Amino acid sequence: MRDLTDLTVAITGASSGIGAATARTLVSEGASVVLGARRVDRLNDLAAELGSKVAVVEMDVRDPADAARLVEQAYASFGRFDALVANAGIGAYGGIMDLSDDQLREMMDTNIAGTVWPIRAAVPGLVDAGGGDIVIVGSVAGLRGAGDEAVYAATKFAQVGLAGGLDRELRDSGIRVSMIAPGGTATEFAMGAGRTPDMPGLADMMRPEDVAEAVVTVLKQPLSMRTLIWSMRSVKEAD
């Protein structure tokens, strides 16, 4: 497997859940990480926990200028930029007529535009370096859809299409584009928007650390191969 020591990885949505778990796992592998999210207090707490191999950027993935600052911070703090984990995303349970206009707009903007802008910021540097990795953290909902989350699923289908198109567009430049598509994961996802801390089923879901291991495994694979889509689910999750 590839050694990640001294590589620099930027992570969006890094203040909690899969993003924070991925940061912890990468630092344990010797990588440096740039943490991006809106909740800067949480980012600072995570940086204090993980030490000198961490930099923090307060950002909104819906803003192209913020996405550019995330990549710029990688060079400023560590002198290099090797990979982007486009992890930021939000969701809400409810039928298409159940959610407000604002809820739907925020979900579409965060999950689609908030994936595109960081990738656009990342590509030039990765091309100049002769290659690197883009890992998009999506959802199994982007592979099969689901009732009461149709718009969320649509945003995740968009990520799958983006990943497939970028694989064809960028692989000749040495850039690997991978889609991680987890099923139910016990995070803050949709908390207060259809999910509650005491809801049945949370205990049977995957942990964010499980998905983080998948992200890191993709980054560690030999440079001669690439993973296009890796979907995973808890053994207790129904179809």
User: How far apart are the termini?
Assistant: 32 Å
Largest sheet: 7 strands, parallel
Count of helical regions: 7
Could you list the spans in which at least 5 consecutive residues all have pLDDT below 50? Answer: none
What percentage of residues falls in helices of 4 or more residues? 40-55%
Question: How many E strands?
Answer: 7
Approximately how much beta-strand content do the residues carry?
15-25%
Assigned CATH superfamily: NAD(P)-binding Rossmann-like Domain
Which class best fits the helix and strand makeup?
alpha/beta
CATH topology: the name is: Rossmann fold
* Strand order in space, largest sheet: 3-2-1-4-5-6-7
Which SSEs are present, and which pair or pack?
Elements: E1 8-12, H1 17-28, E2 32-37, H2 40-50, E3 54-58, H3 64-78, E4 83-86, H4 101-128, E5 132-137, H5 141-144, H6 150-170, E6 175-182, H7 208-220, E7 229-232
Parallel strand pairs: 1-2, 1-4, 2-3, 4-5, 5-6, 6-7
Helix pairs in contact: 1-7, 3-4, 4-6
Relevant terms:
alpha/beta, single chain, Rossmann fold, 7 strands, about 240 residues, seven-stranded parallel β-sheet, globular
